[in-house]
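Researcher: I'd like a candidate sequence for this fold, 331 residues long. If you have to choose between options at a position, lean toward the conservative one.
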């Protein structure tokens, strides 16, 4: 499996994030020679990867990183919980656009054979089920507007390169909510699964959860997301976006129950219906990934949460946690 990656020189940006780490490991297992790019010093680096540091908002940095590469997986971006993308609107809009623009341009100039752009389901307008062809029917929902438009511009850049340069070996993936080890577990900025894990493990009781527990989302374990990206570059590098998700919705109540089961804790849960929780139901259509990539998640939600809880409890010193890459709160 993944024979196309053997002995290939591959750049992974965002290589120290939760998907990037899993991807670096899988690529090396497939025989690739991996250059792992990160903004900060790598924590727990893979011993067989070449690590390079730099700010991808710099065109010169991107030029140096892409030189000599066969393939590029561009995962570097900005991630945060509901509300964070509006509080740090400029960071969520400008920084990804600069990174995406320079990385794709320098990859093209360097003669990179195939390129993967990690977009997001935040490009979609409000809908119960996200279908690839309908993404541009309306603007992204307001809660994700700045991040959504930044990702849309990356997708449009790929279309422009195909139009002008005939570079059609670009895969575009739209991952759902990804979780796993090495995530951001800060309850103030993290997404729902890592935030709840941290709060439960640290003994919060009662456990206050936004909403009434009925909001439904699609979740994917980081290792499955990385494997899906490898399949996309291998089988679907044609400039057409593909969702990476389970195609199954899980409620916040189900997530909380899975976390409690994995931790062995039993706090009282108080549902705070006064707080915003976004759309009630958001699930990705997984048909394209099934039919064209042969992709199905291998890790169930309960197993993935159990693995993430175990990792978190083994790393509670915080040394290995992912840190937000947007501006700190103003003093």
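Model: Candidate sequence:
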């Amino acid at each position: 499996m993944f024979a196309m990656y053997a002995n290939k020189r591959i750049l992974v940006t965002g290589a120290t994030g939760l998907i990037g780490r899993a991807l670096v490991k899988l690529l090396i297992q497939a025989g690739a020679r991996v250059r792992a790019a990160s903004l900060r010093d790598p924590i727990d680096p893979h011993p067989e990867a070449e690590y390079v540091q730099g700010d991808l908002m710099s065109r010169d940095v991107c030029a140096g990183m892409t030189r000599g590469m066969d393939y590029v997986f561009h995962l570097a971006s900005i991630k945060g919980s509901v509300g964070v993308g509006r509080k740090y609107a400029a960071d969520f809009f400008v920084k990804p656009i600069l990174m995406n623009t320079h990385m794709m341009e320098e990859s093209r100039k360097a003669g990179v054979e195939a390129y993967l752009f990690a977009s997001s389901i935040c490009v979609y307008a409000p809908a119960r089920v996200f279908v690839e062809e309908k993404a541009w029917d309306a603007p992204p929902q307001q809660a994700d507007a700045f991040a959504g438009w930044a990702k849309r511009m990356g997708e449009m850049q790929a279309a422009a390169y195909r139009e002008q340069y005939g570079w059609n070996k670009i895969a575009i993936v739209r991952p759902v909510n990804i979780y796993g080890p090495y995530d951001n577990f800060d309850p103030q900025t993290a997404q729902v699964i890592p935030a709840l894990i941290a709060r439960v493990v640290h003994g919060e009781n009662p456990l206050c959860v936004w909403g009434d527990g009925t909001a439904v989302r699609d979740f994917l374990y980081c290792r499955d997301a990385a494997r899906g990206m490898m399949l996309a570059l291998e089988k679907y590098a044609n400039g057409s976006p593909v969702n990476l998700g389970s195609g199954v919705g899980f409620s916040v109540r189900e997530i909380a129950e899975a976390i409690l089961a994995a931790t062995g804790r039993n706090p009282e849960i108080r549902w705070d219906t006064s707080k915003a929780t976004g759309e009630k139901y958001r699930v990705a259509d997984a048909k394209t990934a099934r039919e064209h990539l042969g992709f199905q998640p291998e890790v169930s939600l309960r197993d993935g949460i159990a693995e993430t809880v175990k990792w978190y409890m083994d790393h509670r010193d915080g040394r290995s946690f992912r840190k937000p890459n947007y501006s700190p709160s103003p003093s």
